[in-house]
Specification:
With 452 residues, this protein is α+β, with helices and mostly antiparallel strands. The protein has eleven helices and 16 strands.
Length: 452
């Protein structure tokens, strides 16, 4: 067996060209600067614990030593009073407990980014470059050496290092000289993102990377049929990193198309781009669902996708026709009451209480859905998702001859259908016929399907 060692340097996200951390990247993830008041409270809690651990020395050992120093022979004076053993025991116990507390604080800070005071006030410490644990030697030991070293200059040192130096931070993130030495940054885990929540942090990093990629270049919709130069017609077959990898049609397919009287590569078969429909309304919990008025899709091949996969006990659903009806003027979305006969019979009930009613040919769901050239007639339904586990254009829900088909649109965190307690993954571009009672998973969000 041959083992291969990956000695390549790890790519750190959120750094500029000079390797310096970018505050805007941390803000995009949802990390917030720890409030100064809570940092002071955290330090006060830890100092209070140290004071309690020093009480045996302050109440017993120190007074006994001060009283014994008044006599010429201090040791004999303590022995005569019978308190020598107690004085030694109190001093040793206080020293041992204080040392143990400081060591535990250093280990917790270096490995978990938390101490007793920070845990009580909802503050976490991270490495300012990697946004991960600070590290024991630099993030914890070196930082505390700078803090304790400031007490060598009474009063002026602590005030300058602890109280004033954070005000000089050019990035305005409250990092003092001790934080600069330890490369640490204190964040608010109570009102912002907890950097040690692995799942949330992974989703935030993926979402930030996806948003940056969307800003750099506008990707084609999964329904877009593109023909690479010099090849035959394009068939979407799979995806990689949110994109679509296609393959040219073979000679056998061309022969079949010629025999059937159709030309797959003919320009007439290409779908003309259509303006995006108006966004559909999302109604809050307890309110009547808003109907998405039917709109006629423009002429063209429609949405190219593989035939729907049937889950257990699901009735067969025919695949949608590739040719759409003639052009028809789009009807804007309208509000309808529960008693309105035009109210659609398909409703998605989300985990936050929002309800989306389905009507017409279908809808596109996402944080900021965008219709592609093949999405004519589909209404856009934007969803509020603070966790950003839902992609900008995440899932399409289509109505085809009475069946409801769900299609994942190459989302970052994927989609699935839960039926009878069993989760069925939804491959990108492949439709699955859903029925009443199924649960759709969109990233970390859930939506119950109600039909009828």
């Amino acid at each position: 067996m041959i083992w291969e060692i990956d000695d390549s340097a790890r790519a750190v996200e959120g750094l500029d060209g000079r390797g310096r951390p970018m505050p805007e990247y941390a803000a995009t993830l949802g990390l917030r600067r720890a409030p100064f008041g809570r940092r002071v409270l955290s330090t006060s809690i830890e100092l209070g614990i140290l004071l309690v651990l020093q009480l045996p020395v302050l109440l017993i050992t120190l007074p006994a030593l001060l009283s014994a120093t008044a006599s010429p022979d201090a040791a004999a004076a303590l022995a005569d009073t019978g308190r020598l053993g107690l004085v030694i025991a109190c001093g040793a116990a206080s020293a041992a407990l204080t040392t143990a507390f400081v060591v535990v604080q250093l280990v917790l800070h270096g490995r978990k980014g938390v101490t007793v005071g920070k845990a009580a006030t909802g503050i976490r410490s991270v490495n300012v470059r990697t946004l991960e644990r600070p590290g024991f030697w630099r993030g914890a030991v070196l930082r505390y050496l700078v803090l304790y070293g400031s007490f060598l200059v009474p009063l002026v040192g602590p005030v300058l290092v602890i109280a004033c130096s954070p005000l000089f931070d050019p990035e305005r993130r409250g990092r003092g000289w001790a934080d600069l030495a330890g490369a640490t940054w204190f964040v608010d885990a109570r009102d912002g993102l907890n950097p040690y929540d692995v799942k949330r942090m992974r989703i935030a990093r993926k979402t930030a990377a996806t948003d940056l990629a969307d800003d750099r270049s506008e990707l084609r919709s999964l329904a877009t049929s593109a023909t690479p130069p010099g090849t035959g017609a394009y068939i979407p077959v799979t995806r990689s990193s949110g994109g679509v990898v296609g393959a040219p049609r073979t000679d056998a397919y061309a022969a079949t198309a010629e025999a059937s009287g159709t030309d797959a590569a003919s320009p007439a078969s290409a779908s003309a781009p259509a303006p995006a429909p108006a966004p559909a309304a999302v109604t809050p919990a307890g309110a009547a669902p808003a109907a998405i008025a039917p709109t006629a899709p423009s002429s063209g091949p429609g949405i190219p996708w593989t035939p729907p996969r049937l889950l257990p006990d699901a009735s067969p659903a025919p695949a949608p026709a590739l040719a759409g009806p003639p052009d028809a003027p789009a009807t804007p979305a309208r509000q309808s009451s529960p008693a309105d006969p035009a109210t659609p019979g398909v409703v998605l009930e989300f985990d936050n209480g929002a309800r989306i009613a389905l009507a017409g040919s279908g809808i596109l769901i996402g944080r900021d859905p965008a219709a592609g050239p093949g999405d004519a007639g589909l209404a856009l339904v934007p969803l509020d998702d603070p966790s950003k586990s839902i992609s900008k254009t995440h899932l399409a829900l289509l109505r085809t001859d009475g069946s409801i088909i769900a299609i994942d649109r190459a989302s970052t965190n994927g989609s699935a259908v839960i039926r009878d307690g069993v989760e069925h993954a939804l491959p990108p571009g492949q439709g699955i016929a859903v029925r009443s009672g199924d649960t759709l998973l969109l990233g970390e969000r859930r939506a119950r399907v109600r039909i009828g």
